[in-house]
Amino acid sequence: MVASDLVVQSVANGLLLGGIYALAALGLSLVFGIMDVVNLAHGHMLMVGAYIAILIFAATGITPLVGMFLAIALMFGFGVLLQKVLLQHVVDEGLEQPIIVLFGLALVLQNVGRILLGGDARTADLGIPGNGFDLGFVFLSLPRTVTFVVSVLLIVATWALLQYTKTGQAIRATAQNRTAAKYMGIDTDRIYVITLGIGTALAGAAGALLSMIFPIDPYVGWSYLLTTFAVVVLGGVGSVLGTLVGGLVIGVSENLGALFLGGGYRNVVSLLIFLGVLLVRPQGLFGSGGGS
């Protein structure tokens, strides 16, 4: 019999972790919803972002919260370069070709990481004094609380970009109908470049935040890819609110699964939710309305 206080603590930890999951999944959802590309390298992009923050922390002692901004900038540039050099030749050429290219990219990133940094897991420290917040009935650790707040802020910033900027309006128009967007004078090729840049940058930001909570090694990309897929399927492709709710649900369910079934079943819970939602409600909890 599991004590009730452990259940409450697991739910709280899951909610805080779910914020980062939502941030990571938002990039995957944007790329799929707008470009119709299943980014199989998304988890490995997250891994690269984590290593950027870890290496900066190891070399300078600067908190990964600052390193995260460099990770965002570098990963945005990586996404732009990837679209201009590689993906533009296969996007809109069918579903299979981008998948094959991105699967190959994931393997390249994984092996480059293993060769350059070794296979050992590394982690970073928040770099801010303090243990956390004791609310009496639950304890909120400082790294999890800070990373949750930063994740939500980045999600809100992305939502505001999509809602209130001309670039965001062009992105949403392209997602609804690329041909019509072209007739309206929107440079959809440029929108694809920006979209992949944003999606990759969000993966880098999530990786930097996760590096303060979990060890990172070159092989974690597949695990986080599965988790972000589960979040996107649960929340609904293109829905920012759905992605946030999906992230929180997956975070809580993983923690409760680890509590009741053991840590080895953490990813199994995500997979079961992924399959269950596909069977019962394939459009996700928030449908395919997207954009909000």
How are the secondary structure elements laid out?
Layout: H1 4-35, H2 42-60, H3 64-85, H4 96-117, E1 132-134, E2 139-141, H5 142-164, H6 166-176, H7 178-183, H8 188-210, H9 220-235, H10 240-261, H11 266-280
Antiparallel strand pairs: 1-2
Helix pairs in contact: 1-5, 1-8, 1-9, 1-10, 2-3, 2-4, 2-8, 2-9, 3-8, 5-6, 5-8, 6-8, 9-10, 9-11, 10-11
Sheet/helix structural class: mainly alpha
* Basic shape: globular
What percent of residues adopt helix (DSSP H or I)?
over 70%
Oligomeric state of this protein: single chain
Radius of gyration computed on alpha carbons: 19 Å
Strand content: under 5%
Largest sheet: 2 strands, antiparallel
Q: How far do the termini sit from each other?
A: 41 Å
- Uncertain segments of ≥5 residues (pLDDT<50)? none
Task: Write up this protein.
By secondary structure, the chain is an all-alpha fold. Helices cover 72% and strands 2% of the residues. It has 11 helices and 2 strands, in the order H-H-H-H-E-E-H-H-H-H-H-H-H. A two-stranded antiparallel ribbon has the order 1-2. Helix 5 crosses helix 6 and helix 10 (240-261) packs across helix 11 (266-280). The longest helix has 32 residues, at 4-35. The radius of gyration is 19 Å and the shape is globular. The mean pLDDT is 90. It is a multi-pass membrane protein. The chain crosses the membrane at residues 20-38, 45-62, 99-117, 137-162, 191-216, 222-251, 258-280. Keywords: Amino-acid transport, Cell membrane, Membrane, Transmembrane, Transmembrane helix, Transport. One of its GO terms (biological process) is amino acid transport.
